[in-house]
Design a protein that fits this description.
Helix content is 44%, strand content 14%. With 254 residues, the protein is an alpha/beta fold. The two termini are 15 Å apart.
Length: 254
């Protein structure tokens, strides 16, 4: 069974006390846990700069193309023009298949039409997957209904919603599942989400619309895998294979 982790982070520097790990440290964790591929996005420091981490991810992808599927990070609050330039670098130079936006960390409304929509328009045109942090840590700025609004406005844009509206309690799980139910271009990665919510998402949406993610190094990868191993006991082997890797393999054309 192929295992693909849909939500991990690497940084240009190592500092485990700040949840910063390099690509080499991530690869060691993957090997220890028999994870085949990962989709790493920038950890980022709270200076909110992105360029160094994007470059580090690109270098890791070039060095380990069979294991690292790079995800760029964009912070539109650093300036629209300069951030569009960084987006262009991520797509054309680094060949990233997806770009992540985190309104919780970077303090913006993810569906702000002036701030984020210029990026989403470009990504939709170029068939780049949009990854959104959607969590109860910043429920107003990253609420699943904002994800749903983006999905409606950009029906050709594939959207990966990380956390199912979780991360903090109480989670926004019902809204996340309903958003995905209404919009076929949303799929869910259940990283740092309540196990009961992951089960409900699978039961409501089907195994084809939910994928495994750990949120490492914020969450220990072996712990996340153990949770999924327990959750997926009630499902068929084919459903388990979809959730643990084949869904992301299909979505990212790996």
């Amino acid at each position: 069974m192929i295992v693909i982790d849909g939500d991990v982070h690497i940084s240009s520097e190592s500092d485990i006390n700040q949840n910063k790990i390099t690509s080499e440290e991530l690869l060691k964790i993957m090997e220890e846990n028999q994870v085949d591929k990962v989709l790493p996005s920038p950890k980022l420091s709270y200076t909110r700069q992105v360029k160094d981490d994007n470059k580090a991810i690109a270098e890791a992808q070039n060095k380990y193309p069979n294991k690292i599927i790079g995800v760029g990070g964009i912070n539109p609050r650093l300036g629209i023009e300069s951030s569009l330039e960084e987006l262009n670098i991520c797509i054309k130079k680094y060949k990233f298949k997806a770009i992540k936006f985190n309104g919780a960390r970077d303090d913006y409304y993810i569906d702000d039409k002036e701030l984020t929509y210029p990026f989403f328009e470009e990504m939709s045109l170029k068939n780049i997957i949009l990854i959104l942090h959607s969590g109860a840590d910043e429920p107003d700025k990253t609420h699943p209904w904002r994800v749903a609004r983006i999905a409606k406005d950009f029906p050709n844009l594939k959207i990966q919603m990380n956390h199912l509206g979780g991360v903090r309690k109480p989670g926004l799980y019902e809204a996340a599942i309903e958003a995905a139910t209404k919009h076929d271009n949303i799929f869910l990665v259940g990283s740092e989400a309540d196990p009961k919510a992951i089960i409900k998402a699978i039961d409501v949406l089907g195994a084809e619309r939910v994928a495994y993610g750990s949120d490492a190094p914020f969450v220990l990868m072996n712990v996340a895998l153990a949770i999924y191993e327990t959750i997926l006991k009630k499902y068929s082997s084919s459903e388990k294979e979809l959730i643990m890797g084949l869904n992301l393999k299909r979505v990212y054309d790996l």
